[in-house]
Task: structure prediction
Amino acid sequence: MKKLLISLLLSILSVSAIAEENVDPFEDVNRSIYEFNDTIDDNLLEPVSRAYKDHVPEVAQDGVSNFFGNLRDVTTLANQILQFKPVESAETFGRILVNSTIGLGGLFDVASDMNLTTENEDFGQTMAVWGVEEGPYVVIPLLGPSTVRDGAGVYVDLTSPANMVNEMDDIGFVSASAMNIIDKRVELLPVTDMLDQSDDPYIAMRSSYLQKRTFDVFDGDLPVEEDEFDDF
Result:
């Protein structure tokens, strides 16, 4: 999945802007929030994540990533059920069951070795399946790129009973939520490195986010426009 995301972003970075008009009517405000988020990231999240990646043993990082991935699979399962995906729901349930038992609470990703894999699903994607339009592009303080629909979806996912991270106790002196954020930030380090190389990181981030979300909503099976058939 990481290789797919990186290859997708590499192709996106060559595009200077999204073709759709009025996709970013709040650009001035969004850019200000982007700069705020970027300052927080540059001075806190990125240094902590790089230190974690460079100094924590890889086996421990894998265990943490597997553990939180197993918890996030519960949110995915809930959204797959809401999207009426019976096959995917069964596979994700099996994945959670295997990793929570044989995988010692999710520390080991045994399910992937058994070809029980899943793709992350969130409530923003669920609303898209229900026919809710994505709305304008927005940048949310501390959370980053989104749309009006996906912003509402983030709130639902964060407050949902299916968000098992909320039920976790602190891990030593670090909160479970903070550890989850660090784990996700480490995963995104290669992506942000590429964004920083672009002439306008804001535009690159907006383009990559919107196209990636379209890819996610259609599960990679993107619709083909009629004019593309004409060209063919």
The CA atoms of residues 46 and 185 lie 7 Å apart. The longest strand covers residues 137-140. The radius of gyration is 18 Å.
